[in-house]
Amino acid sequence: MQRRTVYCESCGSAIFNEARFCGHCGAAIGANPPVRSASRELAASESKIIFITHPAALPIGIGYIFSGLLALAITAAFAYIGLPFKAALLTSVLVMLPVVLRHLRRNMTIYKLTDSAIEVNEGLFIRRRRVIPLRSISQVTISQSIGEWLLGIGDVIVENAEDRSRAIALRKISRPRDLAEMILREQRHWR
Which sequence ranges are marked TM in the entry (predicted)? Predict the structure, then answer.
């Protein structure tokens, strides 16, 4: 028997036609649930992208400046006391390594808002994708330290109404207030 994908009328989660209850929300599935055609499934998966962004690059740039200055100071100190250049080079690389890894992690983190969901793709060695449908968002919060506020960056925390433990944090975003307003504007279409 071929499995056909259908969607729960209560929560919109994908289920299979032989299921009697939705595995996500537990709603009873009718005896003959409507089946979406392939063209309708394709159209539903093609959401309009509102924005795609990464965490702000400014903290990474500041990290490069400080670690570069520290590496120069270490090299000068090693030369002054007569240690070999290889030791200074190795120490300088070790000082720069955390900033380089943070930069790679930043480039591998993608925040995407579509007209139906907010999505976070992240991970340097292990990729992880988290999605919250806009209809499930209960709260959008902005979190900034004083330093972040001065730099114009911050975190946008999006809480899931269905499962509060599955909140998504969009970390170190430039202009977090504008981003939060975009999310709330798109969410209004689902209410």
Answer: 56-81, 87-104
